[in-house]
Amino acid sequence: MKVLLTRPEGRNQDMIEQLEQYQVAHLVTPLLAVVASQSAQPIGFAEADKLIFVSTNAVKFAALALNHPFPKQSQYFAVGQATAQALISRGLTPYCAPENSQDSEGLLALPELKDVNNQNIIICRGSGGRETIAQELTLKGANVSYWNVYKRQLPSLDYSKLYQQWIHFGIDTIVLTSGEVLTNLISIIPKESFAWLNSCHIIVPSNRVELQANALGLTKVTNANGANTHAVIAALGLSA
């Protein structure tokens, strides 16, 4: 097995350490860059009943944009364990989607999000995504707003050479931690090389991205049910 790691720059170190421990060959090519958005803080942020963070980047860039600490009276929610840990490191106690379903559906199944009628809920996210959470909570009577604190883009790299390096290296497994990374991967692979891509084992973080991968024609897809290192290592079949 030879693994391609695709998280944004600086976010692959935990996986690198684990793969080195298991003596698994790997390459790192960031397929996503995350930068701050200029979206204004939504009205009522400090008084919101519930604040939902969809990623560690949502926590990071929201903290950078605030000119005061996170409000203590709000309930906090995290889609994944890594996001929950980012909130915990800031002295908060978040509710988190269960380990076996770290996605929108897992979050929405939490008892604390069952009765939200007339509650003010703000979803902190990147530009676009997680519409399912807002739609479901709105149907339950909540007043839902977005705060887009960051945006994602394809890094400026010479991918025409990089994907050839992947093939030459013998990459046969690709770890994708979001739908955006999958979209970027597909965009840089020429049609004539799709057969190679489809021969690779694709690791995805959720049911949503698994369906997206299948719709794009990828057939060797494993849902890790999370983007954290533990979930990915288990999906690779490396955990004890």
What does this 3D model show about the protein?
- The protein is of the alpha/beta class.
- The chain is built from 10 helices and 11 strands.
- Strands 3-8-7-4-5-6 form a 6-stranded mixed beta sheet. A 5-stranded parallel beta sheet has the order 2-1-9-10-11, with helices on both faces.
- The longest helix is centred in the last third of the chain and has 11 residues.
- The model has no long low-confidence stretch (mean pLDDT 92).
Task: Please outline what is shown here.
The protein has 240 residues and is α/β, with parallel strands linked by helices.
Bin the strand percentage. 15-25%
User: What is the CA-CA span between the terminal residues?
Assistant: 17 Å
Low-pLDDT sequence parts: none
Q: What is the number of helical segments per DSSP (H or I, 4+ residues)? A: 10
Order of helices and strands: EHEEEHEHEHEHEHEHHEHEH
Mean pLDDT across all amino acids: 92
Q: What composes the largest sheet?
A: 6 strands, mixed
* Helicity, as a percent range: 25-40%
Task: Categorize the overall geometry.
Answer: elongated
- Order of strands, main sheet, comes to 3-8-7-4-5-6
Rg: 18 Å
Q: Based on DSSP secondary structure assignment, what is the total number of beta strands?
A: 11
Structural class: alpha/beta
